[in-house]
């Protein structure tokens, strides 16, 4: 219920006390594929995090796919959201129309009833113009910034259909004073008031559909976390009278979970590390808590060798509070066991992939593809610098990059600086990735780290080889170097360029890798994924409840 991030608050001293790193690296072990089996009779809740974004990828995409595959196996499930999401209704309409989420998959919110309309046209749109202010549109998204004679006053985020999602307000010093978030009917569902110096929430007010306040939360900055801590929550009745005061975010969260789950046996799967502390302390006899890691638990982006990422501290320090912990790769489980010691409730369930029919589309032998996000983790500047070397050897080679994110201007600036604008194109997020994968000669992955590398697996399933840095975690377990793609030493731009040139100049190698990649992807198919999840749930069920 507006989780304030206890997962990040476990201090470094407590973490060091809880963990006992192994003197030597732990060798990865591989779990055999279990035989198919029915799921236990229970409720299945997948805690995705605060919301389902308009442009979902990564974790949200994998959670929705899990729900769909469970549904296909005759096991209905529900996606649990921890916060209000203004455009949830229209997002679900589109996701169901695309088949990304099962028709019988429910969505439950921790803070409000989910209003899922029958058609997106039911939602009111908001005019872009604000009287007296001049609007400037972001070129990459439905984002507008508003100015009053040069002074920045407002920020608005719309969805693709013109529905207002949220609105920020700024004072003369460009400090954010408050944020309004809107529900699908165009009503303010939550208002957040900000610390003018630190730009962190200090007060949140949650509203009912009739506009009355149902709860106010007072928040304070936390030196051990990027997220604030709760000082006080006040609950109001419909007349606006305070009826209850609570000082524990966990108590509010657990009470709401009790309302949702009741006494039914439930497998509660936590996919968002910001919820770990809440779920680790949520001990109920009828609930089995499973924690799925979608990203490395090590702080790899910060370059802190061996350090635990702040959002993973709670889980890494008390793994035995979980009923099961699921990793996406054998290598990450081994690294975790080097910290916590071997655990028999650590499992590996890789992401699944649907194996499509072979494409009849002709491949462009000179075009490489990247389906990604413009964020520091993806290191797209490495790809651009490598391509500047590639075109020296293969002048007509093309690199097409599709995605969204804040680093797009930085990437475009490097393209312009290196003079490779005719060879490297930057494009918006695509809604037809399969066609692009069917037409490209190969794909590239330059990330500093991955949780699994689902984009690489999707590429192989389409018969499209992958050139990737050999990073934690996933590429080495997905790509058979020299057989289904090429692995390059981490950070070697010259090695990346050499691998790309090798594939561009060798059509038979590309074709053999494409065929081998399609075959290797079958080990990650939906049947294997469902079998692994059924086996895990049956194991927990056999341990008994309560």
Topology:
Elements: H1 12-18, E1 43-49, H2 58-72, E2 78-81, H3 88-98, E3 106-109, E4 134-137, E5 143-148, E6 151-158, E7 164-170, E8 176-182, E9 188-194, E10 201-207, E11 213-220, E12 229-236, E13 242-246, H4 249-261, E14 266-270, H5 276-280, E15 287-292, H6 313-317, E16 324-327, H7 330-340, E17 346-348, E18 367-373, H8 380-393, E19 398-404, H9 408-418, E20 424-427, H10 433-439, E21 442-445, H11 454-461, E22 466-469, H12 475-478, E23 485-488, H13 493-504, H14 507-521, H15 526-542
Parallel strand pairs: 1-2, 1-14, 2-3, 14-15, 15-16, 16-17, 18-19, 18-21, 19-20, 21-22, 22-23
Antiparallel strand pairs: 4-5, 5-6, 6-7, 7-8, 8-9, 9-10, 10-11, 11-12, 12-13
Helix pairs in contact: 8-9, 8-13, 11-14
Explain this structure.
This protein has 546 residues and is of the alpha/beta class. It folds into three domains: 208 residues, Rossmann fold (3-Layer(aba) Sandwich), CATH 3.40.50; 127 residues, Alpha-Beta Complex (Outer Surface Protein A, domain 3), CATH 3.90.930; 157 residues, Rossmann fold, CATH 3.40.50.2000. It is built from 15 helices and 23 strands. The strands form three sheets. The chain has a ten-stranded antiparallel beta sheet with strand order 4-5-6-7-8-9-10-11-12-13, with helices on one face. It has a seven-stranded parallel beta sheet with strand order 3-2-1-14-15-16-17. Strand 5 and strand 6 form a beta hairpin. Helix 8 packs parallel to helix 9 and helix 11 packs across helix 14. The radius of gyration is 24 Å and the shape is globular. The relative contact order is 0.12. The N terminus is likely disordered.
């Amino acid at each position: 219920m507006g989780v304030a991030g206890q997962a990040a608050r476990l201090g470094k001293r407590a973490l060091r006390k809880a963990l006992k790193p192994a003197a030597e690296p732990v060798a990865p072990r591989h779990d055999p594929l279990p035989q198919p089996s029915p799921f236990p009779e229970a409720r299945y809740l997948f805690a995705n995090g605060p919301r389902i974004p308009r442009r979902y990828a990564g974790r949200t995409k994998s959670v929705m796919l899990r729900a769909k595959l469970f549904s296909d196996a005759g096991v209905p499930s529900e996606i649990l959201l921890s916060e209000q999401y203004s455009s949830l209704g229209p997002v679900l309409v589109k996701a169901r129309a695309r088949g990304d989420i099962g028709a019988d998959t429910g969505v439950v919110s921790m803070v409000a009833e989910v209003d899922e309309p029958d058609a997106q046209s039911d939602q009111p749109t908001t005019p872009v113009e604000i009287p007296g202010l001049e609007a400037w549109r972001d070129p990459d998204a439905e984002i507008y910034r508003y100015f009053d004679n040069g002074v920045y006053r407002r920020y608005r985020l719309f969805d693709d259909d013109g529905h207002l999602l949220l609105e920020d307000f700024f004072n003369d010093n460009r400090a954010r004073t408050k944020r309004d978030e809107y529900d699908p009917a165009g009503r303010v569902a939550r208002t957040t008031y900000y610390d003018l110096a630190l730009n962190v929430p200090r007060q949140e007010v949650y509203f009912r559909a009739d506009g009355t306040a149902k709860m106010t939360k007072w928040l304070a900055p936390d030196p051990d976390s990027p997220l604030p801590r709760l000082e006080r929550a006040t609950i109001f009745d419909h007349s606006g009278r305070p009826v209850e005061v609570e000082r524990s975010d966990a108590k509010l969260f657990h009470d709401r979970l009790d309302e949702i789950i009741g006494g039914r046996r439930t497998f509660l799967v936590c996919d968002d590390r910001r919820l770990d502390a809440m779920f680790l302390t949520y001990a109920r006899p009828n609930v089995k808590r499973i924690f799925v890691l979608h990203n490395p638990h090590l702080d790899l982006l910060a370059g802190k060798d061996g350090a635990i990422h702040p959002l993973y501290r709670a889980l890494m320090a008390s793994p035995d509070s979980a009923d099961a912990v699921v990793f996406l790769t054998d290598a990450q489980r081994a690294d975790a066991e080097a910290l916590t010691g071997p655990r028999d409730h650590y499992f590996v369930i890789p992401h699944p992939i649907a194996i499509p029919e072979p494409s009849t589309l002709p491949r462009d032998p000179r075009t490489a593809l990247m389906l990604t996000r413009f964020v520091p983790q993806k290191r797209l500047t490495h790809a651009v610098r490598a391509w500047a070397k590639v075109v020296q050897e293969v002048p007509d080679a093309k690199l097409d990059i599709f995605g969204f994110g804040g680093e797009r201007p930085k990437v475009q600036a490097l393209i312009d600086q290196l003079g490779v604008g005719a060879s490297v194109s930057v494009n918006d997020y695509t809604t037809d990735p399969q066609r692009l994968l069917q037409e490209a000669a190969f794909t590239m992955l330059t990330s500093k780290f991955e949780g699994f590398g689902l984009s690489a697996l999707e590429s192989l399933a389409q018969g499209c080889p992958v050139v990737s840095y050999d990073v934690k975690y996933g590429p080495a377990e997905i790509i058979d170097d020299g057989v289904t793609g090429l692995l390059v030493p981490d950070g070697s731009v010259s090695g990346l360029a050499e691998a790309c040139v090798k594939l561009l100049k060798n059509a038979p190698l590309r074709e053999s890798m494409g065929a081998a990649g399609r075959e290797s992807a079958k080990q990650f198919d939906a049947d294997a994924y469902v079998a692994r999840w059924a086996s895990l749930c049956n194991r927990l069920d056999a341990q008994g409840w309560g």
